[in-house]
Amino acid sequence: MSSEKLAPRTRRPRRKKGSSPKAETKRQKILDSAAKLFSLQGYAQTKLSDIAKEAGTHAGSLYYHFKSKEDLVQDVLGMTMSLLSNAVMAKVNELPETATPSERIAAGIQAHVLHILQRGFYTQAYMKIIDQVPAHVRRAYVMAPRAYGNYWRGLLEGARQAGELRTDLNPTILRLLLLGSITWMLEWYKPDGPLSADQIADEVTKLFFDGARKR
Amino acid sequence: MSSEKLAPRTRRPRRKKGSSPKAETKRQKILDSAAKLFSLQGYAQTKLSDIAKEAGTHAGSLYYHFKSKEDLVQDVLGMTMSLLSNAVMAKVNELPETATPSERIAAGIQAHVLHILQRGFYTQAYMKIIDQVPAHVRRAYVMAPRAYGNYWRGLLEGARQAGELRTDLNPTILRLLLLGSITWMLEWYKPDGPLSADQIADEVTKLFFDGARKR
DNA sequence: GTCTATACTCAGATAGAC
DNA sequence: GTCTATCTGAGTATAGAC
């Protein structure tokens, strides 16, 4: 059950006829540039000319690849959650059959933290701009995190069933607090800080399982 | 040491000469309206005409009270952290002398959660728009949360000194994870959800102190 | 103090040459 | 496919009446 990937969000299921591999490469470069700038500056603050410059082209040229700025941001959002959830699921699925549910959770935490702190401009962009895009765009893309949330629900539920988690905590709140504390890292994490992303993931895991109280 | 308030951020230390109590009231209403709309829609998405409408006036009229939209948002940001930290400090200071450091932390969590979920349009606006305002504005206001962060640092350090918290967790990360999980509530909390703000605060406290593992 | 009308600016979008 | 030049609309800001 944990092995199937989330359905890829295919807003643009087929290439425009006539678009070449070259165009596809350029298109990808534009998306990467957009994700980067959105993550750093937000949606409204990022001008198409900024994105074009980052991608080595000009504002007007973007319109060969995208209908509008809104169209562009939708593609960025569309790629985001599948990148993250695929990374997390892959890591969890790497575990041996004998892994306990708690070990699966720990692996998921690790993978999620590393993904958002190290790789993903896309994830960072998503978190930053999901609140900034037009409402109808947002509505179309909040389903993606929900699917990912369901994956975590399963992870936690598995551990609970196995008797590894306390039963006096609301499972939904538990999940939201865990993922929230990780998501918020994007606001304070600095790559050159004293702790590595790996170490930070360990701290989260320890706190999540055992709390901060001395015993 | 926990009783002094954070220095109020006084961008506008004195009234413009000639400004009346009436103007001051109106000004406040405009700020409240702006905080509300910023928290709901973000910075760029909120037009001055929206704010004016909400405050029962017109876009042009705002310029009697504020030099610019940027000036207005700075006042909103300026009020935010002091409202939050005053609420939290007040609650913590209400505790009897005999309260343990852990009880102080629990009270702080409670107050912070209730404040952002129930009251504060200002806090919600702050969280939402701090990433959306021009960089030089942001720079001027990131100090405010830092001061609040220091208050929490003290709260946690007190408990650690008293031997109530484990010492194998990085205190800074611990603080950021705790406050992050709370901050992120603004993204998922719905007033009509199954759990009250009070109950959610309890869940956070339990998870923070004792973790999710079954014992 | 607040209104209405209007000027200005910025950035998204389009057209057409190459 | 990409460029430059240009159009247009939205929204901030100003002016001047009341």
Question: How would you portray this structure in words?
Answer:
2 copies of one chain form a homodimer. Helix content of chain A is 67%, strand content 0%. Chain A has 215 residues and is mostly helical. In chain A, α1 crosses α6 and α5 packs antiparallel against α8. The first copy, chain A, binds a DNA duplex (18 and 18 nucleotides) through α1 and α3.
**Would you tell me the structural class of the helices and strands of chain A?**
mainly alpha
- Main sheet of chain A? none
Q: Identify the overall geometry of chain A.
A: elongated
The gyration radius over C-alpha positions of chain A equals 19 Å
Oligomer: homodimer
Through-space gap between termini of chain A = 37 Å
Total strands of chain A: 0
Query: What's the number of helices of chain A?
Result: 11
Strand and helix order of chain A: HHHHHHHHHHH
Largest interface, chains and sizes: A-B, 45 and 46 residues
Question: Roughly what is the average pLDDT of chain A, rounded to an integer?
Answer: 90
Instruction: Point out poorly predicted stretches of chain A.
Output: 1-10, 13-18
The percent range for strand residues of chain A is: under 5%
Helix fraction of chain A, binned, reads 55-70%
